UniProtKB/TrEMBL annotation:
GO terms for molecular function: methyltransferase activity. It is an enzyme of class 2 (transferase). This is Class I SAM-dependent methyltransferase. Residues 77-169 form the Methyltransferase type domain. Residues 1-24 are annotated as: Disordered. SUPFAM superfamilies: S-adenosyl-L-methionine-dependent methyltransferases (SSF53335). Keywords: Methyltransferase, Transferase. InterPro entries: Methyltransf_11 (IPR013216), SAM-dependent_MTases_sf (IPR029063). Gene3D superfamilies: Vaccinia Virus protein VP39. Pfam families: Methyltransf_11. GO terms for biological process: methylation. Its EC number is 2.1.1.-. It comes from Streptomyces tibetensis.
Length: 279
């Protein structure tokens, strides 16, 4: 067996990657890198905190899902749950979460930490739940940055939400696509077009994708939300707080004080008229 240190580094490129290739690549990437991810970021995330992104915006303060006292007895789907830190926090508020992730290894970390809620290994584009199963859905950097068809995911979430249900999800702020993914000064100069939606792909020597990330402009995200049967209630761009001195990949105090790093979309299931047509 080839050891990780002996394996050649993947090639970074920009090319098309469809739904199937993206799903396969990212399931494999998260399975391989879950241990390192939890070691590197586990302390920041905590075991039972609900953090929306590298800025450290906490649901305790933000209340984007609603006041904590209103979460009691609510059925909540966490998409891209990782080690299910958010689901543990939701449980402590009296909610009934289900933690879903495409990565089996990430969910093994959820088992390691513990919790009384269900863990489900599945693709967000084909949710294994009946219509109207949940009151709320949330996703902190889960699934949506990595899928080729975000509307497929959003429509699936709408399907499993009850009337009036709320979805809140965070993604890398779209403006970051134009800048290098670097925390220092080199990450402050535009290096590519904000409007270039060609996916970022890391591929092996045989050209097989091992990691895929998809870009949508801010307008694209809004249109995706509306076309999938949601109403956009709020768009939150967290500012970098003075207490946060940590770096997380391309996120840092330097960049965070100048550029938004995270976009959080607060959506509600639209009940007016039929679901908009594909387009």
């Amino acid at each position: 067996m080839i050891q990780e240190s002996e394996a050649s580094e993947p090639e970074a490129t920009r090319r098309d990657a469809d739904v199937t290739e993206s799903s396969r690549a990212n399931r494999g990437w998260w399975d391989r890198n879950a241990d390192e991810y939890q070691v590197e970021h586990g302390t920041f995330l905590g075991d039972d905190r609900f953090v929306w992104g590298p800025e450290g915006l906490d649901e305790v303060e933000a209340e984007l899902l609603g006041p904590p006292e209103d979460l009691k007895g609510r059925d909540v789907l966490e998409i891209g749950a990782g080690a299910a830190q958010c689901s543990r926090w939701l449980t402590a508020q009296g909610a009934r979460p289900v933690a879903l992730d495409i990565s089996h290894r990430q969910l093994q970390h959820a088992l390691r930490i513990g919790g009384s809620f269900p863990l489900v290994c599945a693709d967000a584009g084909a949710l294994p739940f009946a219509d109207g199963s949940f009151d709320l859905a949330c996703s902190a950097y889960g699934a949506l940055p990595f899928v080729a068809d975000p509307r497929q995911v959003l429509r699936e979430v709408r399907r499993v939400l009850r009337p009036g249900g709320r979805l809140v999800f965070s993604v890398t702020h779209p403006i970051r696509w134009a800048f290098p993914d670097e925390p220092g000064p080199e990450g402050l100069s535009v290096s590519s077009s904000y409007f270039d939606r060609t996916p970022y792909v890391e591929q092996d020597e045989e050209g097989r994708a091992v990691y895929v990330e998809h870009h949508r402009t801010l307008g694209d995200r809004v249109r995706d939300v509306v076309a999938s049967g949601f109403r956009l209630v709020d768009l939150v761009e967290p500012e970098w707080p003075a207490w946060n001195t940590s770096e997380w990949g391309g996120w840092s105090p330097l960049r965070g004080n100048l550029l938004p790093g995270t976009a959080i979309f607060v959506c509600e299931r639209s009940e007016t008229g039929a679901l908009p047509a594909e387009g």
